[in-house]
UniProtKB/TrEMBL annotation:
Residues 3-212, 246-465 form the Polyphosphate kinase-2-related domain. GO terms for molecular function: kinase activity. Signal peptide: none annotated. Residues 241-268 form a coiled coil. This is Thymidylate kinase.
Length: 472
């Protein structure tokens, strides 16, 4: 091993110990020599925590998910390393030039914005992204292709390179991204001689890792601060709950009619390949689970998933907090229910001191960007906040304690959360104010009367889906 290899291996072990997730992106034109450089790098890094992600042109299965879904899916956990051989940049170029438009909207400026937001979100949460572009002159590439052609065993590879060159001018397309200012700048590695190119690559990565480790050494731990008011008075949740009621007979008739229409909506969504994401937040005992149950009841179970979100597992905690939700996003034509969601970062994590002030405040934009990317992939996003008053919550808690078949629903944590009622109320109001957007608005439903809340939510879902489907 050379001194540079030794140094890179040493630094990568240190980033692993420090828990820094590292993503190394390698791009380059066909026959540029990027596979030889990628393999040299892969051989230098520790296989125990290094993953090699070879990104091929998008297949049919990939096109049924949001543009960046597979990159979120393969996100490295704390201390791990991903080598991305070709990346989201190649995918954007291929999606444009191969006209992969049959399953998702491909408004290119929006997808480009999704890439910027993706990188910004990761860097702001401690990920180190190193982007390398392997540059080789055209004559050298042609020589490499001719050499492959002369070997009967490797001729297929030459044909693959030539096929790529026919479909698009990769270099021209990439030149735009190479010159664009981003949070993760590109480093260009000139490949004329393999050994020199490898050394140049190592030097770039070593310099970036040294800089990052210096930053970690000097970084100050931020004090946990939920930033709450002393005497918070809600402006959003002041309902006249007595007027928001539905009588039992009217409820039964309307529910059956709405459920029948909801089943039709499900099949229309499937036929038009439109994904539907339904998010339910609200105070404990507000009736989120019962509301979801009535909406799910008429549906075909092969076309939806129900995600009851609890505290993150140890593995989930080693990833970006949005990682576990990206893995649950539905493919085209399917429905995903979320009983609690990614809003935990700005609700329970803020209230309970599990996220510092920077983390929960920057999460508002990160969540908006996340939902924007879902919208860009044609998803319908409907978010409900079920609101009930404090006296009604106490009544429901006591009912649960006194009813044997419902006793499991009430826990010591529910009582502890109740003691922080005003904090959760303020966090919820801030959340709605910062994350209710044109493409993913919040619908606040008074839920003292469960029947009223269920009918209102179902009517809202059906109305929004009908408007969307009529415009498809």
């Amino acid at each position: 091993m050379t001194n540079l290899e030794d140094k890179l291996a040493e630094l990568s072990r240190e980033t692993h110990t420090q828990g820094i997730p590292l993503m190394i992106v390698i791009e380059g034109a066909p026959a540029s020599g990027k596979s030889r450089l990628a393999n040299a790098l892969y051989m230098t890094l520790d296989a125990k925590y290094t993953n090699f992600i070879a990104n091929r042109p998008p297949r049919e299965s990939y096109l049924r998910y949001p543009f960046l879904h597979r990159y979120w899916y393969h996100l490295p956990k704390s201390g791990d390393i991903n080598i991305h051989f070709r990346s989201w940049y190649s995918q954007l170029i291929e999606q444009k030039d191969y006209h992969h438009t049959h399953n998702l909207r491909t408004d290119l400026p929006e997808l480009e914005a999704d890439i910027d937001n993706f990188e910004n979100t990761l860097v702001n949460n401690g990920y180190e992204i190193i982007k390398l572009y392997i540059d080789t002159d055209e004559k050298a590439r042609e020589h490499h292709i001719d050499k492959l052609k002369s070997n009967p065993i490797l001729r297929w590879k030459a044909e693959e390179f030539q096929e790529q060159l026919i479909h698009h001018d990769y270099e021209k397309e990439m030149s735009y991204f190479l010159n664009k200012k981003t949070v993760s700048p590109w480093s260009i590695i000139h490949f004329h001689k393999k050994s020199q190119a490898i050394d140049d690559m190592y030097k770039v990565i070593i310099q970036r890792l040294q800089k990052r480790l210096e930053y970690e050494k000097d970084k100050q731990t931020e004090r946990i601060n939920g930033d709450f008011s002393n005497n918070f008075k809600t402006k959003l949740f002041n309902f006249d709950f007595a007027n928001e009621k539905i009588d039992k007979q009217d409820y039964k008739e309307r529910l059956l009619e709405l459920q029948e229409r909801m089943r039709e909506i499900q099949f229309q969504l499937y036929q038009e390949k439109v994904p539907l994401i339904l998010v339910y937040e609200g105070m404990d005992a507000a009736g989120k689970g019962g509301n979801i149950k009535r909406t799910r009841k008429p549906l075909d179970p092969t076309g939806y998933t129900n995600n009851a979100i609890s505290a993150p597992t140890d593995i989930e905690l080693q990833h970006h907090y949005l990682w576990r939700f990206h893995k649950r996003i539905p493919r085209t034509g399917h429905i995903a229910f979320f009983d609690r969601s990614w809003y935990g970062r700005v609700l329970v994590e803020r209230v309970e001191g599990l996220a510092n002030r920077t983390e929960w405040q920057q999460a508002y934009k990160e969540i908006n960007d996340f939902e924007q990317s879902l919208h860009n992939s044609r998803a319908i996003i409907i978010k409900f906040f079920l609101s009930l008053d404090k006296n009604e919550q106490l009544k429901r808690f006591k009912q649960r304690q006194e009813t044997p078949e419902k006793e499991w629903k009430i826990t010591a944590e529910d009582w502890r959360n109740r003691e922080k009622w005003d904090l959760y109320l303020e966090a919820s109001e801030d959340m709605i104010e910062h994350t209710s957007t044109l493409f993913a608005p919040w619908y606040v439903i008074p839920a003292n009367d469960k029947r009223y809340a269920r009918i209102t939510a179902l009517e809202t879902i059906i109305k929004i889906c009908e408007v969307h489907l009529n415009g498809v």
